[in-house]
Every structure is written in structure tokens, then in C-alpha cells.
Amino acid sequence: MIQTKKITAIVALVLGALALGACRGAIKKSPPIHPVLDMDFQDKVKAQMSSDFAGFADHRGMRTPPAGTVWQGQLAWDAEGVFKNEGGEYVDNPLPADEAVVRRGRERFDIYCAVCHDRTASGNGLVLQRAKVVAPAAFNFALPHLAKEPRLVGSKDGYFFQVMTLGQGTMPSYASQLTPHDRWAIVHYLRVLQSRAQ
């Protein structure tokens, strides 16, 4: 009886040690045991690696995109969706700055932008006000005053369009929520806010 309890205890101890030894939580210098590979090892070429493929004479793993390749999403853009010209310079707003466009820009700004940037573009919207109360350490930054900061007042229209399209810093892209027309309309409205702030 005592012998059986000792054997049971030893077996339990060995199984427990094996179970703890199988955990990958610790840092080990030796590779882990792979009884089932489950695609742990795959033949692939990662960025900056050389390639053994006979078709690549330069043996580079990263390939130059073919001529005419466009990045994802660009195919759906028309002339309104381009924010830089061929020379890499930001473009001017292609929309006329008439009353209807500015009103549309204000409407879209109040819906999508004012929650963070405030209706006056001061950078102190409701999201940041509440975030500073709930998690002050996580939001220890300030948004720029879109209507007064000299860097933004002097920037080209295409810069604002680019930020709305691609996002910047903690601001996500709004390309899926705002059409190119609406993004350009918001740029016109920002220019109105800037002119009133001077």
C-alpha cells in the first residue's frame, strides 16, 4: 500500500515536471522540442533575405514591383484622390471653394473630426477630454490646433488630404468613411477656420 502511494507520487511528480518543462514561457537558448511541426518550419523568403531561386539572377528576396504597380486602394481613386503630383509635391485643392462645398466640409468635420479636434479645430475634443480623465497616463499628448499652428496654416491642401487618407500618429485613416470629395471639402472648411483664427 505504501509502495503504491510512493510510485503514484513519483509518477505525478515526473508528469508535472514534464508538463512544466514543455511550457514555452521561459527564455531558452536551445530550440523547443517539436513533436508536431504544425508549420513551425516553412520554406519562405523574408524581407532582406537572399534567394536561391534560379530565376533571380541578383539573388535578392525582395523584388522590385513591376512597372505600373499601384498600391492597394489607389485603383479606386480618381483625380480628386491624388494628394501629390508626379514631382512628389502636395497639390492644391481641386474643388472650388463655394458655399455648398464648405458647408459639406463643415458637416463632415463636425461628424468625423470634431470628436478629437473640437469644432473649432483647437485639438481639445470630447474624446481627449474624457481620455485625460479616464487614463491620463495613456493620453499625455496634445493635438495640434489645426486653425492656428503656423506649420499647418502654411501647409499645402494635399497635406491635410493625405493625413485624412492615410492617418498619422494615433489618428487612423478615414479613407473608408470619407469620400475623396468629402476630404477635400473638409480641407476647404479647415481653411475657413484658419482664416477666422488669424
Overall description:
This protein has 198 residues and is mostly helical. It has a domain at 81-197: Cytochrome Bc1 Complex, Chain D, domain 2. Helices cover 40% and strands 0% of the residues. Helix 2 crosses helix 6 and helix 5 (157-166) packs across helix 6 (180-197). It is elongated. The model has no long low-confidence stretch (mean pLDDT 83).
Could you provide a short overview of the structure?
By secondary structure, this protein is mostly helical.
Tags for this entry?
6 helices; mainly alpha; 198 residues
Name the poorly predicted regions: none
Task: Name the CATH homologous superfamily of the domain at 81-197.
Answer: Cytochrome c-like domain
What's the architecture of the domain at 81-197 in CATH terms?
A: Orthogonal Bundle
Number of strands: 0
